[in-house]
Predict the structure of Guanine nucleotide-binding protein-like 1.
Amino acid sequence: MPRKKPFSNKQKKKQLQVKRERKRGDTGSGPSSRNASVERGERQSDTSDSETTDIIRRINQQPFSKDGRHDPNRFRLHFEKESKEEVEKRKKMAREKILQPVSDKEHEVDISDIYPTEKGLGFPRRPSWNYEMSREQLLRKEEKSYREYLDDLHSRNPPGSLSHFEHNLETWRQLWRVLEMSDVILLIVDIRHPVLQFPPSLYHYITGDLQKQVVLVLNKADLCPPPLVIAWKHYLASQFPHLLTVCFTSHPGQPYSTVLQKKRMRRKAGWSQAGGPIDILKACQEITAGRVDLTSWEQKIQRDAVAERPDEDRPDEGVDSVLVEHQSDAAMEMSNPSQELYKDGVLTLGCIGFPNVGKSSVINSLVGRKVVSVSRTPGHTKYFQTYYLTPTVKLCDCPGLVFPSRVNKQLQILAGIYPVSQLQEPYSSVGYLCERTPFLSVLKLKHPSLEENQPQQGQEGSEELSWTAWDVCEAWAERRGYKTAKAARNDVYRAANSLLRLAIDGRLCLCLRPPGYSCLKGHWENHPDIPEIMALQGRTEDDGAGDRDEDEDGESSTEPEEERDRDGFGRPKRRDEMSSGLTVNMYNVLRENECE
């Protein structure tokens, strides 16, 4: 009988790995599956911080703590899984579809198109309960009610028609607790696309069922031209007459000076110089009507306005301490909605909203210093905490929640609702962005075909050629020096993620417009409230007027570390070289004329 050949070391390692995967019950998401991909631009991004089941994809996995008492993944984002056929279809379209600029009407979005009333696009409600029920009985009833909600939602909407939305019941429970604890709700939205993040069902539930008031905070107001900010305020007031609306920005007077700048230029005065806290105070004074003493809050805003903090990362000395309460599960699960508003003379403000709308930044600005970590990753805030702003005012920070809607998924990604790092196919979103922004003049791209045929020809020839989303990603990868590790080809996947992050951060700005904006553009540009909005933004009439010529090689040294070139193009610049960076007039990016 012939003897069997002994296994080689490579075969032994492979068998051992297969046994481990079978034991773990996870085949295809381990490190070996990622290393086996031949090209980064062709693979799907099922990275190590994602977990996929047959229907639901769980993302943003966090490592467990050493003590093991708390589960950091309890409030992970749970989104519906897309089929492989759908992903491949969009990838093929990104290679073939020629990008065409859309009309101004395409930029206008009506809230009824995003949340049509006949589609049942509500949100799960907490079922009724009583103190005779045990904790386990309550949890089972909530789970049953949530399954019924999902069944009804999918029965009214055919597959593929709904956007990404939260499937994690634990996160919805956090929303229930915050709504129950709060006296006034601060619903925070991004001014660039407010109708995407303002579910009418939530507003009607708060004002109708809970009998509480909502203050809509239009955050990141410095990223929009003043006429558009005013147009959105009037549109939302016409749709919801009793809604109080305020504008807010944590970065007044700090626009992006370059496309590749990592952050808006950090203000030397720290978080206390935000624009809009006084407007939130006035709205709360109007709601409380003297039932809560808000004098201490007003005095705090006045103190913060004159405070000078040269280094915001330096520990604050001589300022009021902030009391932070971590809410335990036991305290929240068996708590009944309080019918008494302003209990013990304290106003409780609940901060809720979609991921990436800037809830944590609003809280830091209201407090006057950093008390909440800020991240552009959706789902960064895992559970809610309460912060005592003054002895009579406290804030509740709720994790970002994605409500079901009929919004285009590509637009949803550009709004920062879905983590870019977890996208299986980012190219269609890049195409959606490029059709709505003058990407060639902003990014200074050179068509990939010119790289091979006419290497000496500049951008002039690129404007005459047809572009696809794939071409844009390949040209951006060539410009930035993004190469795959094995074959040194242009890393289009990394380039696509880079472009999407530029859009989410506001460096390549895409703003939606309310219905009829194009027809009334002249009216909004001459509106009497323009000076007030410009003062809030920290701008003057001369800001943005002087567009400097964009240098092809003059890129900012403050670009994100993950977007630094691998071959040395991302070297830090000296201070005297900063002025030659790639500058962009944000009004031109938006196809808006600057307000005189």
The chain has a mean pLDDT of 75. The CA atoms of residues 323 and 428 lie 45 Å apart. The first strand starts at residue 50 and ends at 52. The radius of gyration is 25 Å.
